[in-house]
Amino acid sequence: MGSFARDESLDGLSIDELRARLPLAPPAEDALGTLLDERHALLLLPVGEIIAWQNYSGPLRFTFLAGAPAALSWSPDGHDAQAAHLGAAAHLHQKPEVALASETWFTSETLGTWSLLQVASPTPLAGLPCEKAADDWFPKPRLPQTPKYGAK
Q1: What string of H, E and C letters represents the secondary structure of 35-93?
Q2: pLDDT one-digit tens code per residue, 75-126
Q3: Of 73, 125, 131, 151, which residue is least crowded by CB atoms under 10 Å?
Q4: For every residue of 18-31, which 3-state class applies, written as one string?
């Protein structure tokens, strides 16, 4: 099937209409969305569902396709975190895509009724091991280092 491109005609659909129109089977327990082929998946984010913090052992690229913008937060080391809004409105500082390095922790949720993202990887998605964090885990900033006076 291959990759999808941004499709504005999907934006006005209800989530039920979207599910009827696209091949959106429920993802397997350890899958990141509905696989389109070995390197691409569709990830539907309905309102109220948050992807728990997790990481994969290969690089991932998240691309906004349709619906409301989505919030994507990530942390390469479990301490320092950043976030972006994936969407089509560059004038609102939304990004069309975000690439994450291998083993980067991430979470995502829709900022509206639903968001549709494509997830891509140069490594086959079905073979990428996934590590999921505990339900109460999130990146924790390091304590600031205090300078030691008199140290040389």
Answers
A1: EEECCEEEEEEECCCEEEEEEECCCEEEEEEEECCEEEEEECCCCCCEEEEECCCHHHC
A2: 999 999 999 999 999 999 999 999 999 999 999 999 999 999 999 999 999 8
A3: 151
A4: HHHHCCCCCCCCCC
| Residues 99/59, Cβ–Cβ less than 8 Å | yes
Is 86 in contact with 93 (CB distance < 8 Å)? Answer: no
- Letter for the amino acid at 129? P
In the structure encoding, which two tokens stand for residue 91, read together?
Answer: 């004038």
CB 69 within 8 A of CB 45: no
Element (H, E) at 15: helix 15-21
